[in-house]
Amino acid sequence: MSKDANGLFTATDITGLTLRNRLAVAPMTRVSASEDGTATETMARYYERFARGGFGLLVTEGIYTDQAFAQGYLRQPGITNEAQSQAWRPVVDAVHRHGARIFAQLMHAGAISQGNRFRDTTIGPSAVQPKGHQMEFYYGKGAYPMPTAMTEEQIADAIEGFATSAARAVAAGFDGIEIHGANGYLIDQFLTDYANRRDDRWGGDTRRRTTLVRAVFDAVRATVRAGVPVGVRISQGKVNDFSHKWAGREQDAEAIFGALAEAGASYLHVTEHKVWEPAFEGGRDSLVALARRYAPHVTLIANGGVQDAARAQEVMAAGADIVALGKAALANPDFPNRVRAEREVTAFDPTILGPIANIKPSELAA
């Protein structure tokens, strides 16, 4: 094993949960559940490949949290009832057989839902037209619909959905919970200045716009037992506004990361297009470095553009404890084993995500 890889294979822990190394699989939407939102045998085999390939931690694709407005994509998995919960058990067991850990990422799509079998309308913090267009490789087409501004009751229901789904995830055997607060989905919409124009307790300046994510965190933390890690994924860019940057720059980073550290997050999962680059034009520090500065005692997972061991080590040197791979993991489900053996890493082939970004038979081959 090369010197570039040494630091990636030391054990670490997240609030007492031991991970065998510093390499994780990032959450990636794969629209391969049954139409009713239950996880499938194909999904179990897909996740098992990463565990068998040596990753220490896997974070699932976004799992919808209620039978109202949470679902974002057709054939997205949910965890809203006992049947959906139990369908995840074979996935979890397959991962555990190979010594890896798996966290359930809980997600509410909010205003950028483009496929929901429970509702034909969308909701968000405010009645603001989402930027961009629906993603065709997730069965979408055309502009996002205009959302309705959420009522207090709908906000309470969304928070409850996260909490009850977290309980179901733990009952299904998941090792931890990741709250999806990134990439343009509901929690990120509340964090975003142009999407959240509310003048009540859920809106206002950046610190006030963290009210929802803190409320969701508190509800989840109160629902699951103390030893279960509960983290939050945070980004600037969004699936419908890829180049978005926080207007308040470092002050916004301080407000968001500081609020989550104060809330007691077990970890923060920071994602950028190229996670090692400066977070803001003309700046010096990456979002990883800013997260480390303003949440100094919180475990930090970094995701975005990392393709090799040397870059992963660079990101860890900037402050990350764990590096999560997305496209590199799709191309190399055995990335950790390859790096250990000093074998060549395969380049990512984007055709794997087209025309629909579902799990392909080739991804399940031995």
UniProtKB/TrEMBL annotation:
<keyword id="KW-0288">FMN</keyword>
<protein>
    <submittedName>
        <fullName>NADH:flavin oxidoreductase/NADH oxidase</fullName>
        <ecNumber>1.6.99.1</ecNumber>
    </submittedName>
</protein>
<dbReference type="InterPro" id="IPR013785">
    <property type="entry name" value="Aldolase_TIM"/>
</dbReference>
<dbReference type="GO" id="GO:0010181">
    <property type="term" value="F:FMN binding"/>
</dbReference>
<dbReference type="InterPro" id="IPR001155">
    <property type="entry name" value="OxRdtase_FMN_N"/>
</dbReference>
<dbReference type="GO" id="GO:0006207">
    <property type="term" value="P:'de novo' pyrimidine nucleobase biosynthetic process"/>
</dbReference>
<dbReference type="InterPro" id="IPR001295">
    <property type="entry name" value="Dihydroorotate_DH_CS"/>
</dbReference>
<keyword id="KW-0560">Oxidoreductase</keyword>
<dbReference type="GO" id="GO:0016627">
    <property type="term" value="F:oxidoreductase activity, acting on the CH-CH group of donors"/>
</dbReference>
<dbReference type="GO" id="GO:0003959">
    <property type="term" value="F:NADPH dehydrogenase activity"/>
</dbReference>
<dbReference type="InterPro" id="IPR051799">
    <property type="entry name" value="NADH_flavin_oxidoreductase"/>
</dbReference>
<dbReference type="Pfam" id="PF00724">
    <property type="entry name" value="Oxidored_FMN"/>
</dbReference>
<keyword id="KW-0285">Flavoprotein</keyword>
